[in-house]
Amino acid sequence: MAERGAPLDVIAASLRRERARTGLSLSEVAKRAGIAKSTLSQLEAGSGNPSVETLWALSVVLDVPFARLVEPVRPQVQVIRADEGPTFYSERSDYVATLVASCPPNARRDIFRISAEPGTPRRSDPHMPGVVEHVVLSSGRALVGLVDEPVELAPGDYIAYPGDVAHIFQALEPGTRAVLVSEHT
């Protein structure tokens, strides 16, 4: 016989995930939803028998659609082809940055595909405090990192450096390509 009722393990995981996303405590979510803290604790532990009213109140407090609490998370697959995505060109160097994945809500990173040619280096002024840039060189050679101390990278090399300090990307060979992840703290 098929199980009837709410999928408790899915509800438990969803409640924990969404409460963490909001940054609210167990007590605060329970208070705002008008339910006992012990009830919410049981639901997050995968026990109890939540009513539609309880789940509805929690979805309102957590600012998510009701279905997000009761349906299993399905993996989202996103494909960006090599010639797709919003592209930005440097005014001063042969440097192109294509946004591959922007920072979703509550995440703190953007991913770019970099294409650069020898010549004038791409110099970046400091970004907002706490930014860290990660670069993996795919092809070519480049000087990457802090303006005063760039590091020469070859294909497969990785570097991380503070993005809140002036930094540089200078292609040393034609067809230099990289992936840049800008991490915001």
UniProtKB/TrEMBL annotation:
Domain HTH cro/C1-type: 15-69
One Gene Ontology molecular-function label: DNA binding
GO cellular component, one term: cytosol
Source organism, top-level taxon: Bacteria
The keyword Methyltransferase belongs to this UniProt entry's keyword annotation: no
Keyword Acetylation tagged: no
Pfam family, one: HTH_3
Keywords: DNA-binding
PANTHER family named among the record's database cross-references: HTH-TYPE TRANSCRIPTIONAL REGULATOR, METHYLPHOSPHONATE SYNTHASE
Protein name: XRE family transcriptional regulator
Source lineage: Bacteria, Bacillati, Actinomycetota, Actinomycetes, Pseudonocardiales
